[in-house]
Design a protein that fits this description.
about 375 residues, alpha+beta, four-stranded antiparallel beta sheet, 10 helices, about 35% helix, about 25% strand, binds zinc ion, FANCL_d3_sf, RING-type domain-containing protein, ubiquitin protein ligase activity, Fancl, FANCL_C
Length: about 375
């Protein structure tokens, strides 16, 4: 047969065998189309005069019915001079209908992502840096607000096709995960516009936190992030206050707690009690906080006279050396004025239990780990 060299080169896994019927040849084997093998069986029927006819007996791996009927149609209507032409035709149909089609859909999405990204970069003038990761899955943006303050955002591209929301914000330093923002959007510009709107909404919050950071000695957090809606502020030796605000309700009276021995807290808490009723809608929230505390301004900690090598920062538990344990601040203070160490209830309880201290009703009482004077705390589970 004159086509066999061509067949061996193009379709090396195809065999041709004669059958009992002299006019029928069985063609069987595998063809390789776009990373996939298809096992096929065909019959070639030769009539005396005219081109041979081909019939598909079986084919594996074809999932779509339309692909199958396209092949059958082609075999019954088209004219082929030889088996190579038949296999070429089948090859073409399989290419169109299987993986390649799949690939084209993906290419469309990639094209859309790149298009959205380039439109996005042109659309927002306040973008300071912007990067689309090479694998097209993440977009990192740094944007300035009206102040200007810098905000970093990470946007994820969702290729899962489970939702039409191609873009969603995967990381942003915002005080609370806002559902509207994290919902995602099929348009990158629309998604980012929601985010910018959120930044504008939070301007009074950012403003207050910046003012606190500038005008007070902040003990905690160490390096405030925009999502930190609280500040622990130094009020004097051994006394501090924790001010927590609601970022979305900034004009509400903030939550104010004091940390320190009673004798130092007293004057602040009486000022707070006195002024608490006077809190109305505050145009200047920073001033409102000073008024609540009965202060003209926040005292500044003199760093020059600050004791170095202090093992425990004031406010931290003197057993675990941490400020927070299970999100709780140290609740117990040693009543000895020359000690006044702070302890988490849990830490002190464990300590006293380990020393087999006395239990009286709902309390356990023993010696302060620091000054050894009597100290007690409620029993824990
Ligand atoms: Zn502790
Ligand atoms: Zn003590």
């Amino acid at each position: 047969m004159d086509y066999s060299v061509d067949l061996i080169l193009k379709y090396p896994l195809i065999n041709i065998k004669s059958t009992e019927k002299s006019d029928i040849v069985r063609i069987h084997g595998k063809i390789y189309v776009h990373h996939k093998y298809f096992a096929v069986t065909l019959h070639q029927i030769t009539h005396l005069n005219g081109a041979p006819k081909y019939k598909l007996k079986s084919i594996t791996n074809v999932k779509s019915k339309s692909t199958l009927s396209k092949i059958k149609n082609a075999l019954s209507t088209d004219v082929f001079r030889n088996i190579v032409e038949v296999l070429d035709q089948m090859n073409e149909i399989l290419l169109q209908d299987t993986d390649v089609k799949h690939l084209e859909v993906h290419t469309d999405i990639y094209r859309k992502v790149i298009h959205e990204y380039s439109e996005f970069v042109k659309f927002f003038l306040n973008i300071s840096t912007c990067e689309l990761k090479e694998d097209l899955t993440t977009i990192c943006v740094a944007v300035t607000d009206s102040k200007p303050r810098l905000h970093s955002v990470e946007i994820a591209v969702d290729y899962s096709k489970k939702s039409s929301d191609l873009f969603r914000i995967s990381a942003a330093d915002l005080p609370e995960k806002d559902q509207a923002i994290l919902k995602g959007n099929e348009s990158l510009i629309a998604l980012f516009d929601t985010f910018i709107g959120q930044l504008e909404l939070l301007q009074p919050y950012f403003e207050l936190m910046d003012t606190l950071d500038e005008h007070a000695t902040i003990l905690d957090p160490d390096k405030p992030r925009k999502s930190d809606a609280y500040r622990r502020i130094w009020l004097g030796e051994n006394i501090s206050t924790i001010i927590t605000v609601d970022p979305f309700n900034i004009y509400e009276r903030p939550d104010i707690k004091f940390l320190g021995p009673d004798r130092l807290i007293e004057s602040f808490s009486s000022s707070l009690n006195e002024n608490i009723g006077k809190w109305v809608y505050q145009e200047n929230i920073f001033q409102g906080i000073l008024d609540l505390l009965g202060l003209q301004e926040f005292p500044k900690k003199d760093t020059a006279t600050n004791q170095v090598n202090l093992l425990v920062e004031f406010g931290e538990c003197s057993i675990c050396f941490c400020l927070r344990l299970n999100n709780k601040l140290p609740e117990i203070i040693c009543t000895n004025q020359s000690c006044e160490k702070l302890y988490h209830n849990q830490c002190l309880y464990d300590w006293l239990v380990s020393l087999h201290a006395k239990r009286v009703f709902n309390n356990i009482s023993g010696n302060c780990p620091n000054c050894e004077k009597t100290i007690s705390c409620p029993l824990m589970n």
